[in-house]
Amino acid sequence: MPQTQVSIQQINKQFPSRSGDPIHGLKNLSLDIQAGEVIAVIGTNGAGKSTLFNCLTGQYPIDSGAIYLDGKQVDGLSQVERAAHIGRVFQDPTMGTAPRMTVFENLTLAQKRGASRGLGISLTQERYHNIREYLASFRLDLEHRMDVPIGSLSGGQRQIISLIMATIKQPKLLLLDEHTAALDPRIARQVMEMTHTMIKEQDLTTLMITHHHQDALNFSDRIIVMHHGQIVDHYDSQAIKSLTTADLYARLEDLVLAEEAIL
Ligand SMILES: Nc1ncnc2c1ncn2[C@@H]1O[C@H](COP(=O)(O)OP(=O)(O)OP(=O)(O)O)[C@@H](O)[C@H]1O
Fold first, then answer.
1. Confidence band, pLDDT 50/70/90 cuts, at residue 97
2. When comparing pLDDT for 117 and 179, which is higher?
3. Where is the ABC transporter domain (predicted)?
4. Among 12, 19, 23, which is best to mutate for testing ligand 1, by the most ligand atoms less than 8 A from CB?
5. Which residues line ligand 1 (CB under 6 A)?
6. Which domains does the chain have, with CATH numbers?
7. ipTM of model over 0.85
8. Entry pTM
9. Contacts of 113 (CB under 8 A, 6+ apart)
């Protein structure tokens, strides 16, 4: 029987606006995610997808509601405290990595997330050896790039390293924030397939924002659709079997058209 790994309960997030009326980033949003479940998050522009991720990581404090991770309430914890348990990969490969530092240094920092000792003391021969072995297991030749600045890698290699950094501590929750959107289609496909393999091998509980609807259909156990700070649809694995990308585009278009009709 799968256990609930993440429970998001009635969370609200507003932003101030110049007009004085607050912007509703998230409205009473609730979601339970089972351990090992992969949920694709799609939605209209400005639906609140990134706000949801920022509230989960603690980058934005929530106004009300509660967030539980593996049974523990985390919404009061700082971003640094949550980082030990939540991995995130961004669309922009410069985010979440230190571009001038080497691959080895970046991976060492990722391994030490949530710990207090400085970087210098951690750059040991033993760690170097262990990280090299780990990189070699991906068969992408990355073990020979350990001493180059991460900024000099190709976009695809960088996203793979970002993924390895986000998962190296076996996070309780992995957040993929359109992580293949900036890559050319062939590389994006490879990175997505690699991502899927890593998620399955490590049984990672995952939320994945994507505009690639085919990826949502191919690689998730459930798809949620967001609009105006709320989840308006859930498609479970059974529903996904008969769903097409055209259905998903049509649904998003309907949401936008319904809004234009009201305006
Ligand atoms: N820091 C902020 N300050 C003010 N408003 C914000 C802030 N972050 C998000 N918002 C607003 O909250 C709403 C949700 O934005 P969010 O970026 O989460 O949407 P999204 O679904 O990720 O959109 P997209 O797919 O277009 O990137 C939008 O109206 C946005 O303008």
1. confident
2. 179
3. 6-253
4. 23
5. 15, 23, 25, 43, 45-51
6. 4-96+170-261 (3.40.50.300)
7. yes
8. 0.92
9. 83, 84, 169
